[in-house]
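Duplicate of #3305? Posting structure anyway:
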């Protein structure tokens, strides 16, 4: 060792130093630990030892000790990884991008040393880093399957990158804080399983007074049994809406994780609007320290940690690397992270390995990106010791896609005898009532004391609501902030229970995760999956006969089907024709399978990967191989960006004042989320033109004209412009 060893870090108080060797050693050990579940311990240690060898350079030491110019200290390790025989390209990608993000591979023949691609950086001159010979570089190689094809190569690269960047963050933080960096904490899976078993015993021990409750218990028992004894792999849980899937799937996951020695459960839900509800239910059962709700990584980049308690700080860290026993997240966050290239999004990926992953409402996987999503699930199950469960009342026909990416995987259904289950749990009768003028629809709704009507457009919802009697009428759309939606739902449930008038006009947001029970329901033309979700909000508890619990499918006169629903409506009509146009027969596994098969056929194979994400790795993009950075930019599950409008109403008034003051924090953004509305660009621009917004630097805004928001109908869609100015 040198008498003056090269340094990697100096503490903020200048009192302590960490040598490069110490940092490389600590990072290598952590990275190896993180990669153990997928058999890549030594390859991750290899990347950890190499990632900062550029800090041995005299130029970097001047940067650290004398505040000299910035130095590229990552390229050296990437170059050494490729000099090995055989070379280690995945480790080279991870090392090169551990600060700036996984780079594109580039063009191997015509790479420019300054173009930022990996092949370019391999030709780039770097500062001499001779002291690195003290590094005990391990003999290693990726698992054989990691180089079997280009999709395996790319996925393994991201997982290796995740191990490296998380280890680098944690080792650096441990040194800078002078103590071990806090991990996510929480109880182990066995302790959480006991809590779930106790709750399950309450359900199973209670008297089952209705066919619905008996079938729910049968589903729960099947989940407990299959979780405890089923092998790691790919499962489906197909249960009609109202069949108790949420708790039953969690019980399966905890039983399975305990039996298979897995570390965590990840619950992936389709909509931001229900993540709080799901997380709250799990928290009540399992304890706050054991459940992490992760929406998006964006806010963590702009907040400080000074206002956090130690427990809150552990939760913040867990939100960045998912180091918690139970994670509740959105499909957008889950899949976009798997195709991301930045450390902030990829840091958590290695913690998806060794997990049970529940995909709630699996039919909502986005069609334009369905193949990349299925490919990612297949990778996790095949190579990363994960078990995946596709959980839904309307099981998508995905067998052929899984066979394309993982021919050896067999989809196993958890719930026994689904045909009988659907027949037993049939609680409604679906009818097609054709085309109605909007006035006639409003009259039919007004004539019923309690009814739910789900429409395709927020404007339609507001117009129908305005035509209903004021007492007991509600309008639920994403134009309402979460606080007002929650308040309205509480009132709706109470009025339904008390037998009071309750007429609800809603967009599709009520179709997932919202437990309400109406005697009748209407659904504007849509896909079969959405129609059955609306039906699941009618006679949910089975207190009435199916014959008297009607769900009416209708079309609005003069109102075209939204473009995004054309193929869904076509597939529903096809499934109906296959069943003699008897809509009452559509709530069966056979009809649902027919619907999805036709939907996928109508879209075409290429449309299931609309942006060519998988081909980008198989064939490159315009001569650029391994386009990690380009794919990360392209892979966006939500195509239409929104901008946030914060509402200074109720508790939101003080929160908006704090936001204006610049005293932002993670907790502030979370609390503000309850008093915010996501706007598409045209609506945002109209509000801005009307002088109703105070624009904020990061692109969001605070509503200043409260006349543009109603606690009953939400944020105005058509704000009036031309507000007078007086001098």
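Output from current build:
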């Amino acid at each position: 060792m040198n008498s003056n060893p090269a340094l990697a870090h100096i503490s903020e108080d200048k009192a302590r130093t960490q040598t490069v060797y110490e940092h490389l050693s600590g990072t290598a050990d952590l990275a190896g630990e993180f990669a153990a579940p997928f058999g890549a311990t030594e390859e991750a240690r290899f990347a950890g030892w190499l990632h900062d060898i550029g800090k041995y350079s005299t130029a970097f030491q001047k940067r650290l000790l004398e505040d000299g110019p910035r130095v590229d200290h990552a390229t050296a390790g990437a170059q050494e990884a490729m000099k090995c025989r055989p070379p280690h390209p995945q480790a080279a990608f991870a090392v090169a991008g551990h600060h700036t993000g996984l780079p594109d591979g580039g063009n191997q023949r015509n790479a420019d040393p300054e173009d930022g691609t990996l092949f370019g950086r391999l030709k780039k001159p770097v500062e001499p880093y001779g002291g690195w010979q003290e590094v005990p570089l391990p003999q290693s190689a990726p698992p054989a399957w990691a180089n079997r094809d280009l999709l395996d190569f790319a996925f393994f690269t991201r997982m290796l990158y995740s191990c490296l960047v998380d280890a680098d963050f944690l080792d650096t933080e441990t040194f800078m804080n002078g103590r071990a960096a806090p991990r996510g904490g929480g109880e182990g899976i066995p302790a959480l399983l006991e809590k779930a078993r106790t709750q399950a015993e309450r359900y199973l021990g209670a008297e089952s007074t209705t066919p619905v409750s008996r079938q729910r218990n049968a589903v729960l028992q099947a989940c407990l049994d299959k979780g405890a004894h089923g092998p790691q792999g790919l499962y489906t849980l197909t249960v009609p809406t109202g069949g108790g899937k949420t708790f039953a799937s969690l019980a399966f996951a905890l039983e399975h994780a305990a039996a298979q020695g897995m570390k965590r459960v990840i619950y992936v839900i389709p909509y931001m609007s229900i993540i709080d509800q799901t997380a709250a239910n799990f928290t009540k059962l399992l304890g706050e320290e054991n459940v992490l709700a992760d929406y998006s990584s964006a806010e963590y980049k702009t907040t400080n940690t000074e206002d956090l308690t130690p427990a809150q700080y552990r939760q913040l860290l867990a939100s960045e690397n998912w180091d918690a026993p139970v994670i509740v997240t959105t499909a957008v966050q889950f899949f976009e992270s798997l195709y991301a290239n930045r450390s902030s999004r990829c840091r958590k990926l290695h913690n998806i390995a060794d997990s049970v992953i529940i995909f709630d409402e699996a039919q909502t996987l986005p069609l334009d990106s369905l193949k990349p999503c299925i490919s990612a699930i297949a990778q996790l199950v095949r190579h990363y010791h994960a078990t995946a469960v596709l959980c839904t009342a309307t099981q998508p026909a995905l067998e052929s896609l899984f066979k394309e990416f993982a021919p050896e995987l067999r989809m196993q259904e958890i719930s026994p005898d689904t045909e009988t289950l659907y027949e037993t749990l049939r609680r409604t009768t679906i009818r097609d009532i054709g085309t109605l003028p909007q006035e006639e629809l409003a009259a039919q709704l007004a004539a019923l004391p309690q009814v739910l009507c789900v429409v395709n457009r927020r404007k339609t919802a507001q117009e129908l609501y305005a035509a209903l009697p004021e007492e007991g009428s509600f309008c639920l759309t994403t134009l309402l902030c979460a606080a007002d939606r929650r308040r309205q739902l509480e009132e709706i449930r109470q009025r339904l229970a008390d037998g009071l008038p309750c007429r609800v006009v809603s967009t599709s947001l009520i179709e997932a995760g919202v437990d309400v029970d109406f005697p009748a329901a209407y659904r504007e033309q849509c896909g079969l999956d959405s129609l059955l979700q609306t039906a699941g909000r009618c006679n949910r508890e089975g207190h009435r006969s199916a014959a008297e619990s009607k769900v009416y499918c209708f079309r609005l006169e003069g109102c075209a089907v939204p473009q995004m629903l054309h193929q869904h409506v076509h597939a529903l009509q096809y499934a109906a024709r296959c069943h003699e146009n008897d809509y009452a027969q559509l709530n069966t596994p056979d009809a649902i399978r027919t619907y999805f098969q036709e939907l996928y056929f109508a879209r075409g194979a290429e449309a299931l990967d609309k942006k060519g994400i998988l081909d980008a790795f198989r064939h490159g993009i315009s001569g650029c191989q391994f386009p990690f950075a380009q794919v990360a930019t392209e892979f966006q599950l939500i195509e239409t960006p929104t901008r946030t409008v914060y509402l200074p109403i109720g508790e939101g008034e003080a929160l908006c004042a704090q936001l204006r003051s610049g005293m932002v924090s993670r907790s502030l953004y979370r609390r503000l989320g309850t008093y915010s509305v996501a706007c598409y660009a045209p609506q945002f621009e109209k509000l801005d033109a009307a002088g109703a917004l105070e624009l904020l630097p990061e692109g969001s805004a605070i509503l200043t004209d409260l006349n543009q928001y109603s606690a009953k109908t939400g944020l105005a869609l058509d704000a009036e412009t031309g507000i007078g100015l007086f001098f």
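Confirmed duplicate; merging threads. Residues 38 and 384 are 5 Å apart (CA to CA). Residues 150-177 form the longest helix (28 residues).
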